[in-house]
Amino acid sequence: MWFYRIASFMLLALVVARADDENHQYEPNEEVILWINRIGPYHNPQETYKYYALPFCKPEGNHHKQHKYAGIGEILQGHELMESGMHMYFGKDQPKTEICSQTLDAKSVKKFKRAISQHYWYQFFLDELPIWGMVGEITATEEEILMMEAHPERDHEVKDSYIYTSKRFSIAYNGNRIIEVNLTSEDPVEVIKGQKIVFSYSVQWVESKKTYESRFSRYLDYSFFEHQIHWFSIFNSFMMVIFLCGLVSLILMRTLKNDYAKYRSEEVLDGMDHGFGDDSGWKQIHGDVFRVPAYLTMYAACYGTGMQLIFLVFGVIMLAILGRLYVDPGAMVSAGLACYALTSIVAGYSSGSLYNQYFYPKPARNWIKCMILTATLLPMVCLCAAIGLNLVSWYFQTISVVPLKAFVWIFGIWLLFAAPLTVLGTILGRHWNGATKFPCRVNALPRQIPEHQWYTHPFTIIMLTGWLPFGSIFIEMYFIFTSFWNYKFYYVYGFMLLVFIILAIVSVCVTIVAVYFLLNAEDYRWPWISFLSSASTSFYVFLYSIYYFFMKTNMTGFLQTAYYFSYMAVFCFALGLMCGTIGSFGSTIFVKRIFQNIHVD
Fold first, then answer.
1. Which of 40, 259, 410, 580 lies in disulfide reach of 535, CB 3.0 to 4.6 Å?
2. CB 178 within 8 A of CB 26
3. Would you list the DSSP string of 363-385?
4. How far is residue 535's CA from residue 576's CA, in Å, rounded to a whole number?
């Protein structure tokens, strides 16, 4: 009984990790805490450090040692909040007040100059509203700035660097709630050795008529995400869906109809010979089309994991639409972890039933191995990427290092929820959907595969098939990449849902066409080829991510490059599993359907 109590507590804590936070309502003169989060170069979103990694002086007291509780999602996103020591009271103006002072030495000057030349920014939180500010400014020509961005290791050589010493907060409130926070950085002082710097802040409270529910709307870039090109991309993808559906319908209703008519006419001419004679094409391989694919264990594990990702993505999108997850820091990551744990039963059910079908009515050998691989395939890939990035972050001493307790917490979620649900799903899949549903018997000896023309070669089919699904989503990829790598809040999850549906339909349609051409070439290795054909969409997404890195961002340095391409590799791996499963699922229905209508003795 204690096992289930602990498991329930961990999942509940994962979903509502911030349930004990403040209720966002304040009494007059009640203290409002300003939290310091992180600091780092503007062009490198993942290169973030603790605020006091720069040689700022600290206010009196131990404010910087007071940390705010962070949920698992916030920890994984690199949030580490601590008190700023800048005292604020609800509704009470604060005149210009000194925080601390310091005299710059040579070491501090070097660090500040380098940070300012790299456009270091910092992030605060007030009542869970994010606030951004720049450390300082430089006086340089456009050519000098371009040179600094091209050679960041020499940025500290810039002579005229100024650090902002005063922070002016303007806080809007409605009733007993905070609505808006604006930060103005003032009083720049030149960074030179021996310079005395006095840091200060002031607070002004302003009444507002804006409602509490709409306070986050100012962070949303409506002009970017709701641009007409976004709508046009949806319309363009929709027209592609109509075209592909028409093409598949043409194959199913016209081409296959002619194939069946030709087959029946030959049956009549052959009299009592009901074989296929000298016929060629997909009907010739009826005795091999449902042969056990190579590496069945891996195929079933990939299929099950991909099916889980389909349900996971759909669930997270629906939660984001209904719950505005972009408002709370780390909420999206927490929701993703919770959905992953709960959808593990889908992975087990899908892989277990698929694996068992190829052995029925005999017992399926090595089904436990398939189950274990299904439960660990995606987590192991993510774990390897996380360990590698953790080593890089540890070397550079960034705030993005995932602590051991977070790994233990995630392992506990996997051990108490994901793994047992995968086992349960595998058992249910083997018993409920594990019976063979293949319309044709499999011959004892495999048929020899004819030599392919270049356009029917599996590699050609795989590479060409993924191009159309990528074409239906690449504009949405631009918006997603920009929101993730350029400090924008992605909120148009309705668009994402439409693109997700369009991607699924396009993937199924083009994969069915690819499988039809493959079968006509008398190649019965369609399970893996259908999976890889649809999964090749992720290959083009990864190529696009390379283009995006060099052409659309100003990221520099080994750390940021490692984070970017590691994230993109894991993202494309998961996308490949999901798209591959979608294509394989549609192709399986198609192949079973066309072979149901032929009669073989």
1. 580
2. yes
3. PPTTHHHHHHHHHHHHHHHHHHH
4. 4
Give the pLDDT confidence score for residue 17 in this predicted structure: 40
The residue assigned the tokens 């030709």 is 262
Which residues in 417-448 are b (16+ Cβ under 10 Å) and which e? bbbbbbbebbbbbbeeebeeebbbebeeeebe
Per-residue pLDDT at 394 exceeds 70: yes
Question: Which residues neighbour 375 within 8 Å (Cβ) at sequence distance 6 or greater?
Answer: 344, 347, 348, 418, 419, 422, 423
3-state secondary structure of 527: helix
Q: Amino acid identity, residue 596? A: Q
29 φ/ψ sector (left φ>0, alpha ψ -120 to 50, else beta): left
Report how far apart, in Å, the C-alpha atoms of 581 and of each of 331, 409, 455, 574, 595 are: 27, 29, 24, 11, 21
Instruction: Decide the pairing of beta strands 196-207 and 161-174.
Output: parallel
Half-sphere exposure at residue 8, Cβ-oriented, CA atoms within 13 angstroms: 5
Q: What is the pTM of this model?
A: 0.89
Q: How far apart are CA 9 and CA 250, in angstroms?
A: 54
DSSP assigned state of 440: S
Helix/strand/coil for 405: helix
The dihedral built from the CA positions of residue 263, 269, 274 and 280, taken in this order, carries a sign that is: negative
Between 67 and 44, the higher pLDDT residue: 44
Q: Give the phi and the psi of residue 436 in degrees, each rounded to 5.
A: -65, 130
For 347-374, how does the pLDDT look when each residue is reduced to its tens digit (9 = 90+)? Answer: 999 999 999 999 888 888 889 999 999 9
Tokens linked to 156: 């500290």
Distance CA 519, CA 281 (A): 7
- What is the enclosing helix (H) or strand (E) of 3? helix 2-15
**How far, CA to CA in Å, does 52 sit from each of 59, 83, 138?**
11, 12, 21
Structure tokens at 176: 């007993």
The DSSP string of 155-207 is GGG-S-EEEEEEEEEEEEEETTEEEEEEEEEEEEEE--TT-EEEEEEEEEEEE
Give me the phi and psi of 155, to 5 degrees please: -65, -35
Query: According to the model, what pLDDT value does residue 71 have?
Result: 78
CA atoms within 13 A on the CB side of 558: 8
6: which 2 tokens?
């602990």
> Which 8-state DSSP code applies to residue 281?
S
**Torsion sign across C-alpha atoms 478, 480, 485, 487:** positive
Structure tokens at 319: 């939660």
- Quote the tokens at residue 388: 């590698």
Question: Could you report the per-residue pLDDT of 420-460, keeping only the tens digit for each?
Answer: 999 999 999 998 887 777 888 888 888 888 888 888 899 99
Which secondary-structure segment (H or E) carries 568? helix 558-596
